[in-house]
Design brief:
Layout: H1 3-6, H2 19-22, H3 29-32, H4 37-47, H5 52-59, H6 79-91, E1 97-98, H7 111-118, H8 121-124, H9 136-153, E2 157-158, H10 165-179, E3 186-190, H11 195-205, E4 211-215, E5 229-234, H12 245-253, E6 257-262, E7 280-284, E8 300-304, E9 317-321, E10 327-331, H13 338-341, H14 354-392, E11 396-397, E12 405-409, H15 414-423, E13 426-427, E14 429-432, E15 435-439, H16 446-455, H17 463-469, H18 496-507, H19 530-533, H20 539-542, H21 554-571, E16 575-577, H22 583-600, E17 608-612, H23 617-625, E18 629-633, H24 643-652, E19 657-663, H25 675-684, E20 688-693, E21 712-715, E22 735-737, H26 774-807, E23 826-829, H27 831-837, H28 841-850, E24 857-858, E25 865-868, H29 876-897, H30 915-919, H31 928-932, H32 951-956
Parallel strand pairs: 1-13, 3-4, 3-5, 5-6, 6-7, 17-18, 17-19, 19-20, 20-21
Antiparallel strand pairs: 2-8, 7-8, 9-10, 11-12, 12-15, 14-15, 16-22, 21-22, 23-25, 24-25
Helix pairs in contact: 4-26, 5-26, 6-21, 6-26, 7-14, 7-18, 9-14, 9-18, 10-11, 14-16, 15-16, 21-26, 22-23, 26-29
The structure holds pyridoxal-5'-phosphate (PLP).
Cofactor: pyridoxal 5'-phosphate
Family: Belongs to the GcvP family.
Keywords: Oxidoreductase, Pyridoxal phosphate
């Protein structure tokens, strides 16, 4: 009930609540769940049920119902209490000066970027920019990211982010294998590579039959024998910088291609790898303004030379033009992606790291080339002066050429020095018994140098004298001579006022959850509550180094442990790993566990993965990455897994069946009542059952995959558990397994407590993946409690069924379960409409922008349809606004169908309409008013910034970095 509803209408006293209840404050469920009690009653009446419980009974198959929740789940807490508890947990983390390096460095997030990007719902609640006309702001920000990476790496095409540095390196490895001509299966990796990168490469190489050869390349000589690719590090993990031109040339002569893992900040001062022949460059943009965050999230990057752009995994922003000829941005070359190519996709990456990429791009925009140079020089000079002081104190500095990381030889005493430094509040890297690594950064201070010297027993030196006498440690021939970041965007926004307005201007072009509902099927665009978001920018979480001693992160690890326990209870699994940093990575980890299980039992011949035709594209792509062969199971006319076909396939593959991968409820938005049977069939044939948990929002509190027959699932915390989509990432894709698979979960070489020993190795660079955003999901569960979570599920199901009922007479609803009900989403079938009128799903999606609404999911899982998932967070007024817009659009379609408006000139085909197009001569058969105020003027108008964008043209003329200003003239 809302507060206003509680006001007495007659002069009677309201019922008095006990003080203990009043003390709890307003329950968070009232904030998270949109419909008020009276509205929910109205919705249920439309659906034809009396209560949420009755809805549960009718929608969810009896055979899988399992509502028991142990007290492993917390009682609901208010926002105030949850935040107090999080404060307490944050206080248990120990902050120190982090000089461990290894790809994670201190950085300053400029406050203007922290508050107006990272903490701004206009940026963090946005969806992946698949509707480019209402996503121009974040597309431009991502284009800035691509331009920045391309400029610094010296390669023409960079994608719009990868999940982290280690997985970018793995993607580069498979890219080189795909694109190259070599028949070799060997990939040579420089021994001076970040250890977590090397470990992830091994995990990813094994199922693909790639042999990783770790080689000491410090002598500049490639090992004997064949190779298809080579990974170099620049600088190396030890800090050393070498000239790699000759090695690259030698690899090329031997028919191999070369990837370089590079530090972005060092490239501000150093010659770019692209200039000396690298085919691909990978790395992390973390130190461009994104906190270390105990390992993530951060934007990884991947840039390639000309000719490889069509092999590039991940999303790529390109430039095209709109219907009026104005420049406009869109995602390019989508045909490479798993949505389209499935098991033939270039990679399984879907959710990437858009929000961190935007932060890092804006960091470069704000600082510009001169600011970046100064930051890079600070890190470098700190390291130089640090090294000089140590040298004068009698210590041996191993490498003469370095950027920010100093390697010190101190025979037998490395551990002791690291311990002393730690007592003084500084974390260093103990490399082995004789070597210590010390990394400097944007946040290193002169005082920190003094502390390190003390740890080495060197007395405080006179800084100015050292600084004056120590020359740079960057070799002359390796200095960058090219101009840096020449595009005007990196020169215009250096005052805070200018950047603030630029950020606002960009986000004003976009429709995020702060402006309208985003009814994207499969994506669960629910509330990302402010109380959930607040902790992620607290320094107690942001400034933890992932490889610092675990006791430094006691509070955050307690959050991880709570969440693991809670998710296990919710899903019915026995063990959960938080390491995968997207759903796709959870799929990969889960399938690796299945593979390892079969191998462990001596059944390594089991390699077939059955996947229904309706599955999400990542499923097939992940199966291939896990070394499996995909066999497609048909769906029947009702959209369910075709059981006779499944029986046939199971029989055929009795000997080599590894797994089936199904989604539950299905991607058709239906609770299939045969799921137990499906699981039984596969188990009987010796296979394992993977349930894609992306649709868990329809299950929590009602059923548990771990109890109805599945062995393993990933969840998407960025869907069901309130981590915002961030415009396309970050995400967290934890994987849950039953007992027999627990020892095959991912682990980590640098933090053994992050997983089982001897498991399948790491799937992410960081031990606990994107740990710093886990407080969001923690807060959600903490504030909802078991009962609140169940209510959220049922409200989401009610909202989907309400929309389905309201729209059914205007658009056929494609699939329903046996009770005539859908689960948490519904598919509107436009194929008949398209056939008879020519109006397409695209037209409807773009027209919704004129109504100020974001389109539903288009053509997934069924081409020519729209999939609507309203979620529990939308109130009835917003659900109705969406329904009325769709009904109004249907009336517009009918006018096209009736011939009243020509098929080529009508408000649907011409959508979306901009303010500019109203100022042109108007010759359309509908009015300007109809064009831009189709839903009336009651709701605040959102003006799309561009007209419909020409996709094909953008793919033909691929432009993936900021266009020169001349492109905008005339
Ligand atoms: C979103 C989704 C995925 C992929 O998750 P990412 O986090 O984007 O990698 C997989 N399966 C289904 C059904 C999904 O909806």
């Amino acid at each position: 009930m809302t507060i206003s509803e509680q006001r007495p209408t007659e002069r009677t006293r309201p019922e008095r609540l006990p003080l203990a209840v009043l003390e709890q404050g307003i329950p968070f469920t009232e904030r998270h769940i949109g419909p008020r009690a009276t509205d929910l009653a109205a919705m249920l009446a439309v659906i034809g049920v009396d209560s949420l419980d009755e809805l549960a009974d009718r929608a969810v198959p009896e055979g899988i119902r399992d509502e028991a929740m142990s007290d492993a789940l917390p009682q609901a807490a208010s926002e105030t209490v949850a935040l107090q508890e999080l404060r307490g947990l944050a206080g248990r983390n120990r902050l120190g000066v982090q000089m461990i390096g290894l790809g994670y460095h201190g950085t300053v997030t400029p406050p203007v970027i922290r508050r107006n990007v990272l903490e701004s719902p206009a940026w963090y609640t946005a969806y992946t920019p698949y509707q480019p006309e209402i996503s121009q702001g974040r597309l431009e920000a991502l284009l800035n990211f691509q331009t920045m990476v391309s400029d610094l790496t010296g390669l023409p095409v960079a994608n719009a982010s990868m999940l982290d540095e280690a997985t970018s390196a793995a993607e580069a490895m498979t890219l080189l294998r795909r694109a190259g001509k070599s028949r070799s299966a060997r990939f040579v990796v420089d021994a001076d590579t970040l250890p977590q990168t090397l470990a992830v490469l091994r995990t990813r190489a094994e199922p693909l039959g790639i042999e990783i050869l770790e080689a000491d390349l410090s002598g500049g000589v490639l090992p004997e024998g064949d190779l298809f690719g080579l990974l170099l590090s620049y600088p190396g993990a030890s800090g050393r910088i070498t000239d790699q031109e000759e090695l690259i040339a030698e690899a090329h002569r031997r028919g191999a291609m070369v990837a370089v893992a590079a530090d972005l900040l060092s490239l501000v001062l150093l010659r770019s790898p692209g200039l000396i022949g690298a085919d691909a460059v990978v790395g992390s943009a973390q130190r461009f303004g994104f906190p270390m965050s105990f390992g993530g999230p951060h934007a990884g990057f991947l840039a390639v030379r000309k000719g490889l752009e069509r092999q590039l995994p991940g999303r790529l922003v390109g430039v095209s033009i709109d219907a009026d000829g104005a420049p406009a941005y869109r995602l390019a070359l989508q045909t490479r992606e798993q949505h389209i190519r499935r098991e033939k996709a270039t990679s399984n990456i879907c959710t990437a790291q858009v929000l961190p990429a935007v932060v890092s791009a804006m960091y470069a925009v704000y600082h510009g080339p001169n600011g970046l140079r100064r930051i890079a020089e600070r890190a470098h000079r700190m390291a130089v002066v640090l090294a000089e002081g140590l040298r004068r104190g009698g210590h041996e500095i191993v490498h003469d050429d370095f950027f920010d990381t100093v390697c010190v030889r101190i025979a037998g005493r490395a551990e002791q020095v690291v311990t002393i430094a730690r007592d003084l509040g500084v974390n260093l890297r103990g490399i082995d018994a004789d070597h210590v690594g010390i990394a400097c950064s944007e946040t290193t201070t002169i005082k920190d140098l003094g502390t390190v010297w003390r740890a080495f027993g060197v007395s405080q030196a006179e800084i100015d004298r050292l600084d004056g006498s120590a020359p740079d440690a960057l070799p002359e021939r390796l200095l960058r001579t090219e101009d840096l970041l020449t595009h005007p965007v990196f020169h215009r926004h250096h005052s805070e006022t200018a950047l603030l307005r630029y950020l606002r201007a960009l986000s004003d072009k976009d429709v995020a959850l702060d402006r309208s509902m985003i009814p994207l099927g499969s994506c669960t665009m629910k509330l990302n509550a402010t109380a959930e978001m607040e902790p992620i920018t607290w320094p107690e979480f942001g400034e933890l180094h992932p490889f610092a001693p675990v006791e430094d992160a006691a509070g955050l690890l307690s959050i991880v442990a709570d969440l693991e326990r809670w998710l296990a209870e919710i899903t019915g699994y026995d063990a959960v790993s938080m390491q995968p940093n997207a759903g796709s990575q959870g799929e990969f980890a889960g399938l690796l566990a299945i593979r390892a299980y079969h191998h462990d039992r001596g059944e390594s011949g089991r390699e077939v993965c059955l996947i229904p035709a309706s599955a999400h594209g990542t499923n097939a792509a992940s199966a291939v990455m896990a070394g499996m062969r995909v066999v497609v199971v048909r769906c029947d006319d009702a959209g369910n897994v075709d059981l006779p076909h499944l029986r046939e396939l199971v029989e055929e593959h009795r000997e080599d069946l590894a797994a089936i991968m199904i989604t539950y409820p299905s991607t058709h938005g239906v609770y299939e009542d045969t799921v137990r049977e499906v699981c039984g069939l596969v188990h009987d044939a010796g296979g394992q059952v993977y349930v894609d948990g992306a649709n868990l929002n329809a299950l929590i509190g009602l059923a548990k995959p771990g109890r109805f027959g599945a062995d393993v699932s990933h969840l998407n915390l960025h869907k069901t558990f309130c981590i915002p989509h961030g415009g396309g990432g970050p995400g967290v894709g934890p994987v849950g397994v039953r007992e027999h698979l627990a020892r095959f979960l991912p682990g980590h070489p640098l933090q053994p407590s992050a997983g089982p020993i001897g498991g399948v190795g790491p799937v992410s660079a960081a031990p606990w993946g994107s740990a710093a955003i886990l407080p969001i999901s923690w807060a959600y569960v903490r504030m909802m409690g078991a009962e609140g979570l169940r209510r959220a599920t049922l409200t989401a199901v009610a909202a989907a069924n309400y929309v389905a009922r309201r729209l059914a007479e205007h658009y056929p609803v494609l699939y329903t379960g046996s009770g005539g009900l859908v689960a948490h989403e519904c598919i509107l079938d436009l194929r008949g409409i398209t056939k008879s009128t020519g109006v397409t799903v695209d037209d409807v999606a773009k027209r919704l922008a004129d109504y100020g609404l974001h389109a539903p999911t288009m053509s997934f899982p069924v081409p020519g349809t729209l999939m609507v998932e309203p979620t529990e967070s939308e109130d009835l007024a917003e659900l109705d606004r969406f329904c009325e817009a769709m009904i109004s659009i249907r009336a517009e379609i009918d006018r096209v169908g009736a011939g009243e408006w020509p098929a080529e000139d009508n408000p649907l085909r011409n959508a979306p309409h901009t303010a500019e197009c109203l100022t042109q001569e108007w010759s359309h058969p509908y009015s300007r008013e109809q064009a831009v105020y189709p839903g009336g003027r009651a709701h605040q108008k959102i003006w799309p910034p561009v007209r419909r964008i020409d996709g094909a043209r953008g793919d033909r003329n691929l432009v993936c970095s900021c266009p020169p200003l001349t492109a905008y003239q005339d």
